[in-house]
Amino acid sequence: MTATSPGDNKLSAASNMVAGQERNRSRWLVGIWSAQILLALLFGAAGAMKVTMSPEALAAAGMSEALVLPPWLLHFIGLSELAGAFGVVVPTLTGIVPRLTPLAALGLATIQVLAIGFHLGRGEFAAMAPINLTLLGLSLIVLWGRTRRAPAGARW
């Protein structure tokens, strides 16, 4: 039988705590990356549609607001969504200026706040609330996660 000293128990407890913190950090990283990828896919698709399709085609695809917005504003929103989709993933993925990722998430959250106001004004909030609030929540999770919980470090 091996004798253990009180110091060994403290070391064992400390190493268990560190291992638990690492597992917890890994779970957060998976969640934050999942949110980032989902935001990039959804905003990238919506932005690409707004930039490449006519307002009539967008309305036929379910974006009826395309018919009431000026084309320049529709394209601006589409370009903003594309920039946000790119910015929410690429800086953290490459390690090149990763502090841009939370800024991109903030931009996507701003788009959603404005979209909620737009849809409220048109009486469409009940129909659009689930997607707008989900995207807003995901954007805020990435913003918080990449500034507080699991900030990405620069590699360059």
Sheet with the most strands, sense and barrel status: none
Radius of gyration: 21 Å
What's the rounded overall pLDDT mean? 89
- Helical content, roughly? over 70%
Give the total of domains: 1
Which structural class do you get from the secondary structure elements?
Answer: mainly alpha
Which blocks of ≥5 consecutive residues have pLDDT under 50? Answer: none
Number of discrete helical segments: 6
Written as H for each helix and E for each strand, in order along the chain, the element string is: HHHHHH
Q: Could you say which overall geometry the principal axes of the C-alpha atoms support?
A: elongated
Q: In whole angstroms, how far apart are the ends?
A: 52 Å
Compute the number of strand runs: 0
**Relative strand content:** under 5%
Question: Care to describe what's here?
Answer:
This protein has 156 residues and is mainly alpha-helical. The protein has one domain (6-149). The chain is 78% helix and 0% strand. The protein contains six helices and no strands. It has helices at residues 6-52, 55-60, 71-87, 90-94, 100-121, 125-149. Helix 1 (6-52) runs antiparallel to helix 3, helix 1 (6-52) crosses helix 6 (125-149) and helix 3 (71-87) packs antiparallel against helix 5. The longest helix has 47 residues, at 6-52. The chain is elongated. It starts with 5 loop residues before the first helix and ends in a 7-residue tail after the last helix.
